[in-house]
Backbone:
């Protein structure tokens, strides 16, 4: 008796003698079916490696001007050209990946943590708790994100912590809605019902059943929200609110006055970096979705679903 | 419940939301290190008397709840504080910029909706075909693009290399009064940028709601009645699939507004977005605060209008 009451979809899978290894192999097989997902993963891995070892690739101070080489167009020595104070643009883009990646992962973690906790609470408790959480989420969805982020960062000061906190704290409602609806549908399932009849505590139901069964979709939507974070953060830097001056958005900000003299490489390459990183995260999230939620394999709908969930 | 009651209810919610936005505004300023007076009183040589008189003239010596009440009353009566840069009421500065933003947003929104729906329709005629995948990837591609970067690329190409389109502003320097052709000429690049960036919102939603509708029973019924595919698609499917798209328009006004802030900056379009950029550079807090409030009001009202239109369009909705 006690044995089968513990049953949940997660445990079931373990009992069919699937080892961690074979599950990883299955994951890889499903993931690698999507060629753009592989491409995205390779791109991101390269970027993360390059950004982590930037000081090995370019052992210089990225803030230091090199006035002898200002505004050189792309060449063999400077493949992406040099900027208005002569710094190599490839070096700047590699160093500039750091704030983008740090903020992307941190803000993504904050919004998915907040969204998961509020979504679980809303779905599990229902009633007034649900009402309160969902009305708050609605308010956050109605208030324009970029202007709010702009206001907060402008007034409180543009440092890394402020930027990641404010992007994370404005992005949670989408995740809340997803986790809430998943929780509601899980709550109707037999194994939860049985657990409750058996007198399982709230902690056991929430963290042994509701949460583990949703980890896949939480992971997918977290990765899907990261490109939005990257674009918001880049917009913030472009508008002059950069926590770190060596960053992609801020490179575009300073290039505003230089396109007129034909220095197209100043704005082209940092923007290309933002765009390809955002796209790479989308590709990875599509691959994750195909591998983790193989039942809903319809491509490109996730974006629309995410948007639709916001309403 | 009648339609009037429904509208009244929605209006109350909209006013409440505006209230929340105003409160957020107030809270953020008072959360700032040193409070709202930190910028004003950033002078170590200021005597305590001068300090007190500045605090008094801005009403900052009063208790917090009274300041809040005065702030809310000020918002309603148009007293949004004085711009540090222009030294004129910030309400006036912001109001002057609204027409330019609307002159960019309304054509872009219209174009986005029309092209987005068009792409969605084309893509859903044969789901998962080559045309579908091409069109969906096309709009998806631009969706991941930062609006300001796409603006730069178009600007460099069409203004600098080809020299066919004007690079900045809303009118030529030489023109003295508003000329439609000149305005349209300046509109092309920023409008294209905004439209391309926001296209995926509409086209992907239109596509998926059309595909969903085409699987419904009443479509099978219509086929059973022997209606032509053309009639089924445009008369039955399209009309029903438009509904979710309409609901999203209100939401997309927010996206377009965000895009407009960034796009205006690139093209020096003299609207609210450029004002935002300049005010951040100038640390002009009264303007930044006013702008956030303005943006919130615009989005809340576009949501309200969408809800009302939705209610008018869908006969199944009863106003509960």
Residues:
């Amino acid at each position: 008796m006690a044995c089968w009451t513990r049953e949940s979809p997660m445990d079931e899978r373990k009992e069919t003698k699937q080892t961690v290894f074979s599950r990883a192999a299955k994951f890889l097989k499903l993931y690698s079916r999507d060629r753009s997902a592989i491409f995205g993963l390779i791109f991101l891995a390269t970027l993360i490696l390059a950004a982590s070892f930037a000081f090995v690739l370019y052992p210089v101070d990225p803030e230091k001007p090199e006035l002898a080489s200002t505004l050189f167009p792309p060449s063999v020595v400077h493949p992406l050209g040099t900027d208005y104070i002569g710094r190599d643009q490839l070096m700047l883009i590699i160093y500039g990946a750091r704030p983008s990646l740090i903020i992307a992962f941190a803000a993504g973690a904050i919004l998915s943590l907040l969204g998961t906790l509020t979504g679980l609470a809303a779905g599990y408790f229902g009633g007034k708790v649900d009402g309160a959480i969902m009305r708050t989420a609605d308010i956050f969805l109605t208030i324009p994100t970029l202007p709010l982020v702009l206001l907060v960062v402008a007034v409180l000061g543009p440092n890394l912590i402020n930027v990641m906190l404010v992007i994370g704290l404005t992005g949670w409602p989408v995740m809340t809605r997803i986790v809430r609806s998943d929780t509601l549908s899980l709550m109707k399932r037999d194994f939860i019902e049985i657990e409750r009849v058996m007198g399982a505590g709230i902690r056991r139901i929430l963290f042994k059943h509701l949460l583990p069964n949703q980890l896949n979709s939480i992971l997918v939507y977290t990765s899907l929200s990261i490109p939005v974070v990257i674009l918001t953060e880049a917009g913030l830097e472009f508008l002059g609110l950069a926590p770190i001056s060596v960053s992609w958005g801020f490179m575009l900000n300073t290039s505003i006055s230089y396109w007129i003299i034909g220095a197209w490489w100043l704005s082209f390459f940092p923007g290309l970096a933002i765009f390809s990183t955002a796209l790479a995260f989308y590709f990875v999230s599509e691959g994750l979705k195909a591998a983790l939620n193989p039942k809903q394999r319809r491509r490109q709908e996730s974006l629309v679903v995410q948007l639709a969930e916001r309403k | 419940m009648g339609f009037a009651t429904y509208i009244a209810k929605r209006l109350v919610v909209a006013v409440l939301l505006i209230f929340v936005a105003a409160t957020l505004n107030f809270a953020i300023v008072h959360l700032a290190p040193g409070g709202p007076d930190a910028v004003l009183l950033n002078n170590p040589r200021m005597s305590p008397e001068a300090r007190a008189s500045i605090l008094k003239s801005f009403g900052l010596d009063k208790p917090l709840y009274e300041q809040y009440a005065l702030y809310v009353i000020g918002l309603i009566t148009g007293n949004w504080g004085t711009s540090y840069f222009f030294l004129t009421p910030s309400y006036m500065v912001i109001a002057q910029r609204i027409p330019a933003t609307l002159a960019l947003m309304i054509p872009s929104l219209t174009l986005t909706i029309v092209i987005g729906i068009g792409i969605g329709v084309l893509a859903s005629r044969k789901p998962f075909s080559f045309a579908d995948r091409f069109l969906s990837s096309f709009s998806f591609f631009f969706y991941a693009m930062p609006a300001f970067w796409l603006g730069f690329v178009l600007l460099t190409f069409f203004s600098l290399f080809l020299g066919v389109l004007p690079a900045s502003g809303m009118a030529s320097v030489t023109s003295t009064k508003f000329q439609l052709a000149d305005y349209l000429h300046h509109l092309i690049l920023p409008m294209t940028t905004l439209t391309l960036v926001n296209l995926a919102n509409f086209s992907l939603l239109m596509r998926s709601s059309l595909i969903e509708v085409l699987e419904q029973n009443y479509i099978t019924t219509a086929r059973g009645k022997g209606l032509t595919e053309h009639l089924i698609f445009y008369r039955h499917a399209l009309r029903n699939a438009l509904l979710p798209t309409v609901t999203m328009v209100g939401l997309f006004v927010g996206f377009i507004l965000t895009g407009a802030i960034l796009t205006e900056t690139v093209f020096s379009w003299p609207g609210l977005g450029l004002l935002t950029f300049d005010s951040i550079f100038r640390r002009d807090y009264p303007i930044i605060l006013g702008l956030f409030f303005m943006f919130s009001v615009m989005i809340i009202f576009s949501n309200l209008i969408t809800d009302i239109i939705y209610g008018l369009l869908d006969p199944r909705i009863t106003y509960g």
Notes: Chain A touches chain B through 48 residues (CB under 8 Å). Confidence is low (pLDDT under 50) at residues 1-7, 297-311 of chain A. Chain A is about 70% helix and 0% strand.
